[in-house]
Design goal:
Layout (H helix, E strand, L loop, with lengths): L1 H7 L5 H6 L4 H38 L8 H12 L12 H10 L34 H16 L4 H26 L4 H9 L5 H7 L8 H16 L5 H14 L5 H19 L6 H27 L15 E2 L4 H5 L22 H24 L3 H28 L1 E2 L12 H12 L4 H23 L6
Antiparallel strand pairs: 1-2
Helix pairs in contact: 3-7, 3-8, 3-18, 4-6, 6-7, 7-8, 7-9, 7-10, 8-17, 8-18, 10-11, 10-12, 11-13, 12-13, 12-16, 15-16, 15-17, 15-18, 16-17
């Protein structure tokens, strides 16, 4: 009788009939998700905007060109903005030469002509070939698009807009780091300050204030960490691995470093599950195949394009500047470099106006924390979290080996000094391990953490403003 009354249209029938309408369930689900994640979205936005603001201050203060290949990156973006791709052997455009001569570059200051000169004969003492023309166009295309939009909306010059575009990409990455920590059920009061501490690492603001192919390092580092955490939790990450691999391949080969290391760990996980006769042992292998297929296919296709557009007789003019030929066996040359990436601070650059005592202090503290955290995690964490710590601990060594083996295979040279920037995509995973270590902190501990975070942010802003500059 009760069922008949409900169908007949009594008051009890209103709620069931509304739930049955097409689309209502989806709207209710999205509404519920937004209500639960609204605070997180606001915090992530605030973190991104703070990062962007600090970067904008530093961009305003530092006008000189970074020696970390920025001139070649500016030239690449400028060419895409005008509908072309650079190829090996192409020299810098007049725009790049003018910006280079006016903005200057400290490492080659005396070799650059006076401001406004675009005659290539006046640049005879420096390399004017775009030696990074072989790199994939993915990031450069994004920066070119954002720069074009900025030129329509503002009166800022193109190079400043290129740098601000990279700052936007880093800001998105910072927001994604916060999201990664929240995905692991870490409380907001812990996830927010730990994320903000990433600004203490010198590479974060370096790539946010220059035209750098490392700008999306946090984005791809977060994606790599999600791939690993999902598979360790028994959920497939094959599609994400495919997209992350293809995306990283469109930026540059070394961006794949963290993904390659994660894939190696997943192969070990699959073998352990198989030997232990556990279910879904094949899932990690499927993710590895998907990721390798995405990154490998993009890398192979772009490599063929570069080869097809390389003029006969072309020689690499930068070969030997940062690398050298082998004297002994490759292993002998590699051994002294195995620790170079730990801490993720070596090889960074700061312009003169923001080279400060505060910045050097922050770099030292960040390097110490990012080195120690994974090894502490190996001792203190358990289960899947210990696997994360182990991956973060061995990752820097594996990055060095990836760089050295790639250089050996391609050009039979090695790097006497391996820059930490080759491994910065491992920073999000390392930060996740640090946050997991701090998770047991009670209220007083969280207060101390927030005070430490506030102090770091004050020093970051002071560094960007040039306070405490080195004489």
């Amino acid at each position: 009788m009760r069922r008949t009354n409900m169908v007949a249209g009594g008051t009890d029938s209103v709620a069931p009939s509304r739930r049955s309408r097409p689309g209502d369930g989806g709207r209710a689900g999205w509404g519920s998700l937004w209500r639960r994640r609204r605070a997180d979205a606001g915090i992530a936005l605030a973190i991104g905007l703070f990062t962007l603001a600090v970067a904008a201050v530093q961009i305003h203060r530092v006008t000189e060109i970074s020696p970390i290949d920025e001139a070649s990156h500016i030239d690449y973006v400028w060419r895409i903005m005008h509908g072309e791709l650079p190829h090996r052997g192409d020299t810098y455009t007049s725009f790049t030469l003018e910006e280079w001569s006016c903005r200057k570059q400290a490492s080659v200051y005396s070799e650059l002509p006076e401001c406004g000169v675009t005659d290539r004969s006046e640049f005879s003492d420096v390399i004017t070939e775009n030696y990074n023309a072989w790199q994939p166009p993915g990031l450069f295309a994004v920066v070119a698009l954002l720069t074009r939009l900025g030129m329509v909306a503002t009166s800022l010059d193109p190079v400043t807009l290129m740098r601000l575009s990279c700052a936007v990409i880093v800001a998105i990455g910072m927001a994604m780091v916060y999201a990664l920590l929240r995905m692991r059920s870490l409380p907001r009061s812990l996830a927010a300050p730990v994320t903000l501490l990433v600004l203490a690492n010198p590479f974060t603001l370096m790539v946010a204030t220059t035209v750098s192919t490392d700008a999306p390092f946090l984005i791809f580092g977060v994606l790599s960490a999600i791939v690993l955490t999902r598979e360790l939790s028994g959920r497939s990450a094959a599609l994400l691995a495919l997209l992350a691999g293809a995306g990283a391949g469109l930026v540059k080969t070394i961006t794949l470093a963290s993904l390659v290391i994660v894939f190696g760990v997943l192969v070990i996980v699959a073998v352990v599950r198989l030997l232990g006769r556990q279910g879904r042992w094949w899932s990690p292998l499927l993710t590895v195949v998907a990721g390798v297929s995405g990154g490998g296919l993009v890398t192979m296709l772009w490599g063929r394009y570069v080869l097809a557009h390389t003029p006969s007789g072309w020689t690499n003019r930068v070969l030997g500047q940062n690398n050298t030929e082998y004297v002994g066996s490759p292993v002998d040359e590699w051994l002294p470099t195995l620790t170079h990436v730990f801490g993720y601070t070596t090889g960074s650059w700061e312009g003169g106006p923001v080279t400060t005592y505060y910045g050097q202090l922050l770099a030292g503290l960040a390097g110490l924390a990012l080195t120690v955290a994974p090894f502490c995690g190996l001792l203190a964490l358990r289960g899947r979290e210990r696997v994360l710590a182990g991956t973060a601990a061995v990752g820097p060594v594996l990055v060095v080996l990836l760089v050295q083996i790639q250089s050996w295979v391609r050009e039979e040279v090695y790097f006497p000094i391996v820059s930490s920037r080759y491994g910065v995509t491992l920073i999000p995973l390392t930060v996740l391990v640090l946050a997991l270590l701090l998770k047991p902190l009670e209220r007083r501990g969280r207060v101390v953490l927030w005070c430490l975070c506030a102090l770091v942010l004050v020093l970051v802003v002071a560094d960007a403003l040039g306070a405490g500059a080195l004489a």
